[in-house]
Amino acid sequence: MTSHLTSGSPEAVQSSLAAYRAAVNGVAGIVTALGLLGLWGSTYIPDGAVKKGVESVAAAILAIGVLQVLSEAYLQRRLSGELFDELGAIERRLAERNEEIAQRLEAKIDPIDEQMRRGFDAVEQRLVTRIDARVDGVERLFNLDRGLAPSGAEAVERSGTDWGAFVSAAREVDVVPTNLTAWLVDQWPAILETARTRPLKITVHLVNVNGSAPIALALATRTGQESDRLREDFGEVVTTLKQAWRAELVHQQSRLLIHTCDAVPGFGVMFTETAWAVLLPGANGPTMGTRPLVSLFRNGTDPGFLAWARSQPGLLQSRFFDEVQP
Questions:
Q1: Is residue 269 within 8 Å of residue 176, measured between CB atoms?
Q2: What is the pLDDT of residues 13-61, one digit of tens each?
């Protein structure tokens, strides 16, 4: 019985205890009933030794039944009290244990939380710093773009300028080179290719090497070449232009005009209807083996900038010299 009551699931144990209590109460009830029945039956027995014997036995049986009932009630109450006391003690111990575990976990988690908080704060600070830098960069670019919008400034380049793109939408283009021969390598191939595929009017403004002595001296000083050599360069450039123009089978509506200037340009200029470029040589003038600094402008909001570029040939007193025929 003991092993049956103390083994198995709590539901099985509770069911076994209930069955046991029911059996005990049933036996006690039967015994009590027998005792009462015996006492009642003894009233029908004549007086004598038998009646007294029956009464004594019935009284004993009744006493046993009553004692059993009382004992079961007392044991149940006592057991319930002890169980409640034990359960209360278990609950108190569990509560104390839970509190102890919670305190230990909190003691371990607090440093971790602090480290994580510091890590998140550091990451947040770095992100804020980067975002602020990006915002400042965008603001500077916006202010720069707003400041450059009137002139239409697009780029400043030291080499590799795409002159084909520069004249891609042009119907007319003017070139004021600072060096008689260097521009034939940089700008001329792209201009000639454009004139071959569609109508394009080209005007080249070359320094008049056969002009006055001061002009010849200034040009010689700027380029580091003798006057005689400059005259030879001028003739070679004109010859090269004519030969290339006729050899490339340019578009029949394209035109090539050569002008000469009575002043020496301090920098190069190239312009179309909507775009213009400034070519800055070194401080000591154009020299062999060096490329000019190129600043490109297009579609400025202030037309005065393009007008300034277009006025440069006039300031150099540029005049018509020749038109190359196909």
A1: yes
A2: 566 666 666 676 676 677 667 666 666 666 667 766 666 666 666 666 6
C-alpha pair distances (Å), 290 with each of 22, 158, 222, 281, 283: 117, 10, 14, 8, 12
154-324 maps to CATH 3.30.870.10: yes
Q: How far apart are the first and last CA of the chain?
A: 128
pTM above 0.85, yes or no: no
Tokens representing 264 are 């020496």
Task: In whole angstroms, give the CA distance from residue 40 to residue 43.
Answer: 6
- Judged by DSSP in three states, 278 sits in strand
**Which candidate, 239, 276, 255, places its Cα nearest to that of 202?**
255
Domain ranges for the chain: 2-107, 154-324
Place of tokens 């490329």: 291
Segment 105-160, tens digit of pLDDT: 777 666 666 677 777 677 777 776 776 666 555 545 444 455 556 777 788 887 78
Among residues 309, 318, 307, 310, the alpha carbon closest in space to that of 278 is found at 309
- Alpha carbons within 13 angstroms on the beta-carbon side of residue 257 total 16
255-261 and 153-157: which strand pairing?
Answer: unpaired
Question: Residue 117 CA to chain centroid, in angstroms?
Answer: 23
Sign of the Cα torsion 163, 165, 168, 173 reads negative
Cα separation, 295 vs 304, in Å, equals 17
User: Is residue 237 packed enough to be buried (19+ CB in 10 Å), middle (13-18) or exposed (0-12)?
Assistant: buried
Q: Are 191 and 248 in contact (CB under 8 A)?
A: no
